[in-house]
Specification:
- The protein has about 250 residues and is α/β, with parallel strands linked by helices.
- About 35% of the residues lie in helices and about 15% in strands.
- It has a six-stranded mixed β-sheet with strand order 3-2-1-4-5-6, with helices on both faces.
- It is globular.
- The mean pLDDT is about 90.
């Protein structure tokens, strides 16, 4: 499987960004073209669920409460693709002084994590079934994010699924805009080639440092994801990467 990323000519780069702007590669399709995307489903009303296109749904308090918390001063961490939610729920419980947002495109997983969130009475965590490439762009202010965690992203093995991979030049640009200077990206993967692809994209971007292992100290103690636990139990290697958002870039 090819995990390389070719250097783009200006014409190729323009085409790539045009495709992303049109929603190509978004999981579940472009929500802007989905009927009633500006309305929250009944199960989500007045709960810790956010959808970028439904922030102005005044039939529920979600959008107003979310915007109020985002406008506050608490450090903000985001997990993209939280799956079962083990890492995210544990981290938000450990750090009640921080605000957390989790993006997961599988609505069933979001609803299960929401039930766990409510049982733990966590008031510093929001969940979303938006594709993060939409949610980050539309719902998160620039330079607001202190940390982004992407733990075991789907490698999308098939060649015709390559466009669905989270990491691409437009996504790295988006991270550069949303992370504050001094913030960081935390990546884990059990696919070595994917890790090196991400390292190539991040280290080649003027806003990011190369991989800095010492940033692991900022993550600190954590509950491993279901996938990381499986890897540990079965002796499978895991690669971790940490990239700082540089100042002045």
């Amino acid at each position: 499987m090819d995990f390389s990323w070719e250097e783009l000519t200006p014409q190729q780069r323009a085409r790539h960004y045009a495709d992303r702007h049109a929603g190509k590669g978004l999981i579940g399709g472009d929500p802007r073209r989905r009927p009633n995307s500006e309305i929250l489903p009944a199960w989500a009303k007045d709960r810790s669920i956010v959808r970028a296109l439904a922030l102005d749904d005044h039939r529920a308090a979600n959008g107003e409460r979310f915007r109020r918390q985002i406008a506050g001063a608490r450090p903000l961490e985001i997990e993209i693709g939280f799956g079962r939610g083990d890492f995210l729920l544990d981290r938000s419980a450990r750090m009640p002084d921080r605000l957390f947002i989790g993006f997961e495109v599988k609505t069933k997983a979001v609803r299960l994590a929401l039930s766990r969130l409510e049982k733990q009475s966590l008031d510093n965590l929001w969940l979303s079934d938006d594709d993060a490439r939409v949610g980050l762009q539309m719902a998160i202010p620039d330079r607001r994010v202190d940390a982004v965690h992407v733990l075991f992203p789907d490698p999308w093995w098939k060649a015709h699924h390559k466009v669905k991979r989270l990491f691409s030049p437009p996504f790295v640009d988006l991270l550069a805009v949303k992370l504050r200077p001094g913030g960081y990206l935390h990546l884990k993967t059990d696919v070595a080639q994917y890790g090196e692809l991400v390292r190539h994209l991040l280290s080649g971007h003027p806003a990011f440092s190369d991989h800095r292992p010492q940033l692991a100290d900022q993550v600190g103690p954590y509950r491993p994801t279901h996938r990381e636990h499986w890897c540990q139990e079965n002796g499978m290697p895991v690669w971790a990467y940490y990239f700082a958002r540089q100042h002045g870039a």
